[in-house]
Amino acid sequence: MKKVLIAEDSSVIQNLAKKILEFQNFEIHSVKNGQQVLDALEKEQFDILLLDINMPVMDGMECAKAVRSLPEPEKANLPMIAITGNARNYSMEDFKEAGFNDFLAKPLNFDALVAQVKALTE
């Protein structure tokens, strides 16, 4: 079973994404900010990260850069999807520079979420 780590400070979005992805046989772990993502990665291995861009403590952009600079290649190269409520503030170029493989705009399109997660974890 593929393990997904979702970093999102909105419990509503976190719970919806979790339900949708669990239904697709993914194992979901949720945290509230980028620092917790880094803490979780120290303890466990995941197959993909979904990072909200606007989070307290450490935002998604900072977190993505931190993940990409981790010493272990299997963690540093994890697929990452940015989740953003203000996609207009960033271009795909910005996301790519931070290390993201793809991004999803809010309100989340759950079909797109499932499709991207599947594509990046196959």
Automatic annotation (TrEMBL):
GO terms for biological process: phosphorelay signal transduction system. This is Response regulator receiver domain-containing protein. Coiled coil: none annotated. It comes from the Bacteria. InterPro entries: Bact_response_regulator, CheY-like_superfamily, Sig_transdc_resp-reg_receiver. The modification 4-aspartylphosphate is found at D52. CDD domains: REC_hyHK_CKI1_RcsC-like. Gene3D superfamilies: 3.40.50.2300. Keywords: Phosphoprotein. Residues 3-121 form the Response regulatory domain. It holds the Pfam family Response_reg.
